[in-house]
Amino acid sequence: MPAADHTQARPGPHRPDPGPGPLNGASHPDPPPPAPPGPPGPAHRSAHPPLRTRPARRAGACGRQKLGRIPDGGGWRIHGRDQRNHDRAHTVGFDYIHSAVDDHTRIAYSEIHPNEKADTCAGFLRRAAAFFAACGIPTIERVLTDNAWSYRKATAWRQALSDLGATGKRTRAYRPQTNGKVERFNRTLLEEWAYQKPYTSNDERTAALQDFLHTYNHHRCHTALGGRPPISRVNNAPGQYS
């Protein structure tokens, strides 16, 4: 049997040249030394330039909560459901609680009105904007609302938005959760103010609203804010709030 030929095969048309390497005893060449750093100063550019941040846009959400008025002497929460007067001619009607919530800070502002007409909504928006400005939020860029007629078609509402330099946005139809912040505030409003205790009159409940709003904005801890109250997210003049 002929001896095996251990010589290196010559490159052919179907056999690429292996080049220098372990098969012929040559080692891989050392990698080239790193290039010297560029000169300091403006001429040196980083491969990853710093991010540019945009100024925060301030948006607010508006909504309404319909609430039955309390007759003098108290309603069914004091006297029980069986003692209610079922005669519609003697009902005391409804209040409409208009509320606005700042998207960033969660600061809330509310007013009680006997209706939800366009002029009422427009006047409320202007006063809410003035309240937010006093809290250190001078500009409102967008206002998110539901699809009520007063927000969709009313000239008074559109004029109020124009005067504030804001854009009106509306939620998707039949999707109130789109306006989640004000919907969540309305739940808190009912639990911690409207139904917090049995009131003996509608005036008593109305008078308690301002105390609730102060507690909500200045002292109530919010999970979404890291356990801090909304007022902690704005820069206030010293002593302006207590």
UniProtKB/TrEMBL annotation:
Which portions of the sequence form the region Disordered? 1-78
Ranges for domain Integrase catalytic: 67-238
Stored Pfam families: rve_3
Which Gene3D superfamilies does its entry note? Ribonuclease H-like superfamily/Ribonuclease H
Spell out the Pro residues composition-biased ranges: 29-42
Domain of life according to the entry? Bacteria
Q: What is this protein called?
A: Integrase catalytic domain-containing protein
Species = Sphaerisporangium flaviroseum
